[in-house]
User: What shape does this take?
Amino acid sequence: MAGSDRTWRWVDGLGIFSLGLGTAQVAAPGAMNRLVGAKDTPENRAVQRWLGGAREIAAGIGIETRRGTTGWLWARVAGDALDLTLLSLVLADPRRRPDERRRATAATAAVLGVTAADITAALRLSRGAVRETRGRGTGDMAEIEAKAMITVNRPIGEVFRFWHDLENLPQFMAHLQSVRSLGGGRSRWRAKAPVGMEIEWEAEITGEEIDEFIAWRSVPSATVQNSGEVRFRPAPGGRGTEIRVLLHYRPPAGKLGSAVAKLFGEEPGQQVRDDLRRFKQVMETGEVVRSEASPEGTRTRRLIAQRPAQPLPA
Amino acid sequence: MRANCWTGKNSVEVMDVPDPKILNSRDAIVRITSSAICGSDLHLYNGFIPTMKKGDILGHEFMGEVVETGPGVTNLSMGDRVVVPFPIACGTCGACQQGLYSVCENSNPNAPIAEKLMGRSPCGIFGYSHMLGGYPGGQAQYARVPFADIGPIKIEDGIPDEQVLFLSDIFPTGYMGAELCDITPGDVVAVWGAGPVGQFAIASAKLLGAERVIAIDRFDYRLRIAAQRAGATDVINYEQVSTLEALEDITAGRGPDACIDAVGMEAHHDIGPLHAYDRAKQAAGVETDRPHVLREAIMSCRNGGVISVIGVYGGFVDKFPMGAFMNRSLRMRTGQCHVQRYLEPLLARVRAGEIDPSFVITHRMSLEDAPRGYEMFKNKEDDCLKVVLSP
Assistant: This one.
């Protein structure tokens, strides 16, 4: 994860660099010509502005909007090659003065450095070391990972049995409407999504060990590819049961995908933590705890839009 | 019903609101017969506790009569007279089972908000901000009481409201403050703040066997009640004498064995510039609390002594004398009171005539007059110490 973050920061840097350089080339082609040691003629200004500047801006926008980022990075590499060719023409020109030659050499060195950065980033992305996602756009979505843990002051057997009956999950997983057992380790899950959408999928138990863990995954035909596992461990000194949950979701492209992404909010971990908080309440007190300001119990969305602490209207 | 609601900084209003309904199976609805304004309500009134919302019903010291119970409440029935503890606690989580009711792990549905500010969440509290649950309070005609099978204590005889009402908060809070001092024979206990909680801390320190109890405040009428009614052996008006010097004198240079902070986040200071420093930082939001009492308690406490903090703090303090605290083997013990723990034993003390908690009451008014009660209490008008409201 840290590695992929680094790559993205790098890519971001290149995108911003493209935008900055492109803007300078379009706005002040004469100054840019002088900077790289080229002759400041009207033709050279046109080359600087349109062949250089416009190209850089297009690449910058392409990279920053995360649409076909890898392609735009390779386009940058091609552009770098073009720049190097133009600079070599300047260096090969016997009419250039020594100071112009020095500037052209420095510019060539700079472009070589940038080319290396472009190639590295493009290779990393092409190799698929990093999923080309990260956004809330409608393109391919990254896999969402969420994990959370809690200690429940109940014996491990009771906690395991409650969770093992998957039909109990909607009691504390706020986004689930229902889970229906189909027998043979298969179950049908239905979730509420924002904007009145409903999502349904079928899941199967992929592994379980009594009082230790339960793992499940959506069947391959499901629109929302997801999997999860919950691990149980006795807490030390009779402190109840430690529960650790790990969920993976791969929302599909398109409108449904963004609905799923919204469902998990900006921080998917918070939703799972809230689910576990409600799970603990159900196990320890028998039900989800409600206040007048949060009548549905702990809900991420309700936390930011509280009712006043007054009884609900009749 | 009518209820006293927070409507902004320095502003409360009695208004019409819907009647409470059962939301959880272990709820009860209580028709309130007496309710009080707490010193900690002034922190809300003065705007120092974050996450208040316009229209929030205030009040966490109340008692009354059960008028409805959810299916999960089997120990209470209609008509039972009950005092309701201010911490809402489930009774079954790990904290409750250790008797740490005010850090109940289940009673705050808004725990994620509290966690942002405090790392972990304490329990939910009636009428005490959204980060502590967003529960309507008891300065009203009715209140919903969650986990009614765990909290409320039944009062079965005709003992008047005024003698048992304070079991809801200030008597147990003051008592716990004294209990945290582990008082042994010969101990000198200094109590900062002679407000209602301070009065009960002083009285409790005496009940628990302290040799001398020193009351520190700047209002003579409060110090007078401390000496005449709560049992303080010495009083210090810090606007007239230096607290540190007076404590040196009383303890012959040892320092008090235990120091109780019954003031909290809005402390005043006898040294003008230091007070201005904390006021300015608090106003600018760089520190939320003015820790003057804590600093003074740490500097004056005997080596190896105890600092017991029951005054309410909200966030962060500055210039905390950690060096003195560490090098001199001091201990600090704190907490919102675990009221449920103290209900039975303190009711027994009241019945045995060891204490009559009504000695702190100076003003009685109707719920409709709550806004005036807040102003009087805040400004210490008419020697105000404790206001009781009847709906």
